[in-house]
C-alpha cells in the first residue's frame, strides 16, 4: 500500500487547504485551513429551517455558509470550457466531493466550510456496452449501474460513441471506475477541455511524461496546483489531469495537474470516506481511495463481513490513527463487488460476432464467442454463438441471431467473449 504517497498529498491539502486558485480550475483563493473530513459522493441535497444541507456518506452537512466550488461543464455550456462555479446550487446528486469542515463524534452531522467537486472524467465516449453497463472514455473504463445518477440521458443505450460526457466516479482495483454520476453535455470536439483522473505510471521525468491508463500524459507545459510540484510526482500517485484540448490519439497535453482528494491525517480526527475496496487482505484490513482501513472493531450495516472484498463499495466512518490508518467504527456496504467480464468492451477495430436467445455472444479474430438462452455464462444447450476470424457469429439450439463483421455482440482480439443477458449488478 502506498501510504507514504497519500500521506504526502494529504499534508499538502492540509497546509494549503482550499488555496490554489488560478487558471479556472483551482480551488479558490480562500486559504481555508480546516481539515478534510469527508470524501464521497453526494446522496442528496435539501433545505431546512436552519439552512441548506447535503448528505455525504450518511452525514448531513450544513452547507449554508460553506464555500462551494464545482469544476465542470453543465448541459448548457456548449463550449465545454472549464470553469470554477460557486454556490450551493452547483452541487448535484452523484457528484464526488471533498468536504473541509467539522464532523460530530457520532458521524451523523457536520458543518462544511469548503466543498470542492471535480469530475474524474470529461471527454469523448470511445465505446458503449449498454448490456454490460460499461463505457469507455479516453481509454478509461467506467461501470454504470442502477445507482449511477444520469443527467441528460434516458439510459445507457441512448449514449453514442463520440458524445461528450462528464463522469464522477470511484476507482476500483481493476482500473475500472464505478460511476456515481454520468452527465451528457452539449460540448463538442475539439472545444471540450478534458479531465482525467488516475494513478501515475511509467513516469519519465526527463521527457516529462507519464501514463494514466491508456493515455500518455505530457506535462512539460503544465501548471501545478495545491502545492504539488513536478519533483513530487511518483509512480502510483493519484491525480487529476486537466487539458486544454482533446487528446491526439492516446497523447494528452496537460494544462494543469492537481493532487487527488485526500483526508486529514491528524491523529484522532473523525472522518468519513466512500470508496471501492482495494488491497484487500481480509474483512478487517483493506484500503479505500488509498487510505488503509482497520475494520477490526467496526459495526457493519447494509451487508455482511463477507461482502467486503476488492470491488465492493463501502462507506466508512471512523478516526485516523497516528500512523495514518483509518480505524473504522461504522461500515456501510453500499454495493457488492463489481465483476468485470474480460471482454466487456471491444477494441475499436475488432470484428464482432453474434449471440442468441437473450444473451450477448462475443466473437473475435481467432476466438469464440459464447452465449446461452439465459444470457449468463458460456454457451450450453440453450444455444451457442460462435465467432471466427471472418467475424461471423451463428446462434443455434434456440435459433437465435446470426451476424457478421458488422453484427452484434462484443469481443476482443485473440480472446474469448462471454454472453450475458443482464446489465444490472446485485
Automatic annotation (TrEMBL):
Record Pfam families: DUF5666 (PF18914)
Region named Disordered: 340-365, 380-426
Superkingdom of the source species: Bacteria
DUF5666 domain segment(s): 40-105, 122-181, 274-331
Biased composition (Gly residues): 355-365, 380-420
Name used for this protein in its record: DUF5666 domain-containing protein
Coiled coil: none
InterPro entries from the UniProt entry: DUF5666
